[in-house]
Design brief:
The structure holds 2 protein chains of 2 kinds.
Chain A: E1 3-5, E2 10-14, E3 19-21, E4 24-26, E5 31-38, E6 44-50, E7 56-58, E8 64-68, E9 73-78, E10 87-95, E11 103-104, E12 108-113
Parallel strand pairs in A: 2-12
Antiparallel strand pairs in A: 1-4, 3-9, 5-6, 5-10, 7-8, 8-9, 10-11, 10-12
Chain B: E1 4-7, E2 10-13, E3 19-25, E4 31-38, E5 42-49, E6 56-57, E7 64-68, E8 74-78, E9 87-94, E10 108-109, E11 113-117
Parallel strand pairs in B: 2-11
Antiparallel strand pairs in B: 1-3, 3-8, 4-5, 4-9, 5-6, 7-8, 9-10, 9-11
Classes of the chains: A mainly beta, B mainly beta.
């Protein structure tokens, strides 16, 4: 079975400061890892994914994430937060073989204060 | 540029009533999915269809049925709605199957359907 944990329900950060949203995963094999963002009353939008290769993945809107195999983590980061980054962020995982549907974490609400 | 379209956007049902959520995608994607979103629980997979003509159960299939009507359309049916099915439902699609190193097809989501069962 595969699972994703997002230990923080909410992260608060001041505009201009760096932000980190944490994600750890559990799979019996090598994973594909994803981050999605959800703005109010909208569907989820893709931010970035880790497939293979460089452990630091760059995505949309200046976000990046670092894959750490030993710690089974895939934390989302941004050097300088914007108020417009305030949203609900989901980490997701799937195996490289077998079922292709994603397993999502519970989500972390990011609040960026002006 | 419609992407994934879900109908209806809002629905209120009484316990025991039935209804069907419709989903259509215009991206020529092979795979389609139904998720439900509940506070504090993230998104949970109800059913998915890896390709036209196939459907498989996800994590929480009980109380639901699906039909992959054609490549574009994937509907979700509640035969006898229960209050526990009050949720926001999302349809998604992806290219599938994986293509080489690009693999791990990205999901495109619809805007969601908010269902309340009284």
């Amino acid at each position: 079975a595969q699972s994703v944990a997002q230990p923080e329900d909410q992260v608060n950060v001041a505009e201009g400061n760096p932000l980190t949203v944490k994600c750890t995963y559990s799979v019996s094999g090598n994973p594909y890892l994803f981050w999605y963002v959800q703005y109010p009353n909208r569907g989820l939008q893709f931010l970035l994914k880790y497939i293979t290769g460089d452990n630091l993945v760059k995505g949309s809107y200046g976000f990046e994430a670092e894959f750490n195999k030993s710690q089974t983590s895939f934390h989302l980061k941004k050097p300088s937060a914007l108020v417009s980054d305030s949203a609900l962020y989901f980490c997701a995982v799937r195996l490289r073989t077998g079922r292709r549907a994603l397993t999502f974490g519970s989500g972390t609400r990011l609040q960026v204060q002006p | 540029n419609a992407g994934v379209t879900q109908t209806p956007k809002f629905q209120v049902l009484k316990t025991g009533q039935s209804m069907t959520l419709q989903c259509a995608q215009d991206m020529n994607h092979n795979s389609m999915y139904w998720y439900r979103q509940d506070p504090g629980m993230g998104l949970r997979l109800i059913y998915y269809s890896a390709s036209e003509g196939t459907t498989d159960k996800g994590e929480v299939p009980n109380g639901y049925n699906v039909s992959r009507l054609n490549k574009r359309e994937f509907s979700l049916r509640l035969e006898s709605a229960a209050p526990s099915q009050t949720s926001v439902y999302f349809c998604a699609s992806s290219e599938g199957p994986d293509r080489g190193l690009s693999g791990a097809n990205v999901l495109t989501f619809g805007a969601g359907s908010r269902l309340t069962v009284l």
